[in-house]
Amino acid sequence: MLVTASGYCQNTNMGWKNAEKNTVGRDWGEAPTLVEGIPARLTLPVAADRVEAWALDERGQRMTRVPVEAETNGRAVMAIGPKWRTLWYEVAVK
Predict the structure, then answer these.
(1) Which of 20, 23, 39, 58 is the most exposed place for a label (fewest CB within 10 A)?
(2) Which strand ranges, in their side-by-side order, compose the sheet holding 2-4?
(3) What is the per-residue pLDDT for 16?
(4) How far apart are CA 86 and CA 20, in angstroms?
(5) What's the number of CA atoms in the CB half-sphere (13 Å) around residue 17?
(6) Stretches in the chain below the pLDDT threshold 70
(7) What is the pLDDT, as a whole number, of residue 73?
(8) Beta bridge partners of 93
């Protein structure tokens, strides 16, 4: 499964035209795009030993394995957030 979690997002030097930040006109800014990673704990309704997870890079390729732990009831739990430097996670259930 693909998990995506993002908060605030905008290009560097994006030129907002008003306080509501609902238009930039033609002033889209430049790279890199700045995004807020959302910290969260995900609990899956399967045993932890059946789950593997990875943080994905900007091309959707596996970058770093994300630890999956077991809750006291055995369910799989993983923590996502800014430390993984991504907005995308692959979760595989065996």
Answers:
(1) 20
(2) 2-4, 88-93, 51-56, 62-66
(3) 86
(4) 27
(5) 7
(6) none
(7) 93
(8) 51
Calpha distance 23→8 (Å, rounded): 15
Predicted local distance difference test score (pLDDT) of residue 47: 97
pLDDT for 21 equals 84
Spatial separation of the C-alpha atoms in residues 70 and 78, rounded to whole Å: 9
Per-residue DSSP letter, 87: S
Q: Got the DSSP string for 11-73?
A: EET----STT----TT---EEEEEEEEPPEEEEEEEEGGGEEEEEE-TTS-EEEEEPEEE-TT
